[in-house]
Design a protein that fits this description.
By secondary structure, this protein is an alpha+beta fold. Helix 1 (21-28) packs across helix 8 (297-307). The strands form six sheets. Strands 3, 7, 8, 9, 10, 11, 12, 13 and 16 form a nine-stranded mixed sheet that branches. The chain has a five-stranded mixed sheet with strand order 20-19-21-22-23, with helices on both faces. It has a three-stranded antiparallel sheet with strand order 4-6-5. A hairpin with a 5-residue loop joins strand 14 and strand 15 (285-286). The protein is globular, with a radius of gyration of 24 Å. The protein folds into two domains: 3-225 and 255-310, BirA Bifunctional Protein, domain 2 (2-Layer Sandwich); 323-406, Rossmann fold, CATH 3.40.50. It has eleven helices and 23 strands. It has helices at 21-28, 44-63, 77-82, 85-88, 111-118, 167-188, 269-273, 297-307, 335-344, 358-368, 399-406; strands spanning 32-36, 39-42, 67-68, 74-76, 95-97, 103-106, 130-139, 154-164, 192-197, 207-213, 219-224, 230-232, 252-267, 278-279, 285-286, 289-296, 309-310, 313-314, 325-329, 349-352, 372-376, 384-388, 394-397. Bound molecules: adenosine-5'-triphosphate and magnesium ion. Adenosine-5'-triphosphate is lined by residues 109, 140, 142, 151-152, 155, 157, 259-262, 294, 296, 298-299.
Length: 407
């Protein structure tokens, strides 16, 4: 991609009123645009990042037998009434009435919609288990939509739902999803913690949150400095600085954090309310056990910026960077030659072909944060200057060496 054609241009200043780092940097670098509080357009590079996050998620979920679908976002009142959530979730739901006075809700989650779908197709124990997921917009009437893309009123989520013939089978799948989530966040590059949490209004049992430690986070968690034990502040009853109840060695510390995902077990409560049964091996009618598992995909992009930036801009991990290479072409450089070779090899390159000064080009490269910067100029001659965004060291490489290093 030629940077002269890339939409939009970068901004020198952060937008007025922007408080959080992800808001300032993602807007300045041109990844997102705010339409109104809590509503964001994903610009071309922002869309690329979210696409990459989604691809990583899909690959892991497909491995555990989940299938991708796409469910509607406008839902009739009657389905939400079956579980009582039309009234109970009134504060968070956006509701609307059409010209014929029919009531609808915009999707804030999809448990009921998934179960309504499943009960039309699942009749016997042989149809279970079933796991379906989709990537789509969620609408939530959040009280305060601040923190950039971390808390939107309209945002992107991956939500996965599963139904099972028994609690044991649900439990087993629940832990498989937890493992898949660990793989997803490790692949992106996060140091993610699986944190025990209460069920809130959704469920009575224990749930788990996928948390990324960050000073800018709205959540607060306690964790062991030696093992993987962690609890959120809502259920934590021990003492900070005390000994870890799990490994009995580590010390309990605390951190602010960002919830990037979570997993829930609902048991049969929702299928009972929705009168959704299947026939078991012995011919008896049974209620399926429901699990629900979310990842905030736009929040994940924002969380990455919160934990990986410096005073000059964003520092993407290679896995979710919009481009693999930022090629800076300066007077006397041979940008075109290497650009063509990289494109031919399928390497994603942002080629700064603009007629602007070197200083502006370098500042933009640091702001945008692509992991590898290549400079071609009179000074580099036949070679290219290679620099990683997360270090200051430079190397001079010829075309073949560059191509080898990118592999
Ligand atoms: P929070 O406690 O932060 O409000 P939640 O418990 O309401 O999150 P869920 O309803 O379980 O979250 O949604 C699943 C995932 O969607 C969350 O883990 C988070 O990553 C993301 N998410 C939730 N609310 C928002 C929002 N307003 N904007 C962006 N992402 C969100
Ligand atoms: Mg919430």
């Amino acid at each position: 991609m030629r940077q002269s054609e890339l939409f939009p241009k970068t901004l020198k200043e952060a937008p007025k009123g922007a408080e959080s780092v992800n808001h300032k940097l993602l807007v300045r670098a041109g990844f997102v645009d705010q339409m109104m509080a809590g509503s964001w357009t994903l610009m071309p590079m922002g869309k690329k990042v979210v696409n990459k996050i989604n691809k990583i998620i899909s690959e892991e979920l497909n491995k555990i037998g989940a299938q991708e679908i796409l469910m509607p976002l406008m839902h009739p009142k009657n389905i939400w009434n079956e579980t009582g959530r039309w009234d109970k979730a009134d504060e968070i739901m956006y509701k609307l009435t059409d010209a014929r006075k029919r009531d609808f809700a915009l999707s804030f989650t999809h448990e009921e919609i998934f179960l309504d779908l499943a009960r039309k197709h699942v009749f016997s124990y042989q149809d279970l288990p079933l796991a379906l997921y989709h990537f789509s917009t969620k609408f939530r009437n959040e009280l305060r939509a601040k923190s950039g893309v971390l808390r939107g009123r309209e945002f992107m989520m991956k939500d996965l739902y599963s139904i099972h013939a028994s609690q044991d089978d649900l439990d087993e799948y629940y832990w498989k999803v937890a493992e898949a989530y660990k793989n997803i966040f490790a692949c992106i590059g996060f140091d993610m913690h699986v944190v025990e949490a209460g069920g809130g209004v959704f469920t009575e049992g224990i749930t788990h949150e996928m948390q990324v430690f960050a000073d800018s986070g709205e959540d607060f968690v306690y964790y062991c400095d030696k093992c993987d034990w962690a609890q959120n502040k809502e259920i934590f009853k021990l003492k900070e600085g005390g000994v870890c109840p799990k490994c009995k060695e580590g010390i309990i510390g605390s951190s602010k954090s960002i919830e990037v995902g979570n997993i829930f077990r609902f048991g049969t409560s929702y299928s009972e309310k929705m009168n959704f049964t299947y026939t078991d091996e012995n011919g008896y009618k049974k209620y399926p056990y429901l699990g629900s598992y979310g990842i905030g995909t736009t929040r994940t992009m924002g969380a990455w910026v919160e934990v990986s930036h410096d005073e000059r801009g964003i520092i993407w991990s290679p896995e979710i960077s919009p481009f693999a290479v930022h090629l800076i072409d300066l007077p006397g450089g041979r940008g075109q030659a290497i650009y063509d070779s990289l494109i031919e090899l399928g390497v994603e390159v942002l080629w700064d072909d603009r007629q602007t000064g070197a200083g502006e080009k370098f500042a933009d490269a640091d702001l945008i944060g692509i992991p590898v910067r290549l400079v071609s100029s009179e000074k580099t001659g036949e070679k290219y200057e290679w620099k990683m965004r997360n270090s200051d060291g430079t190397e001079y490489l010829d075309l073949e060496q560059v191509l080898n290093k990118l592999k």
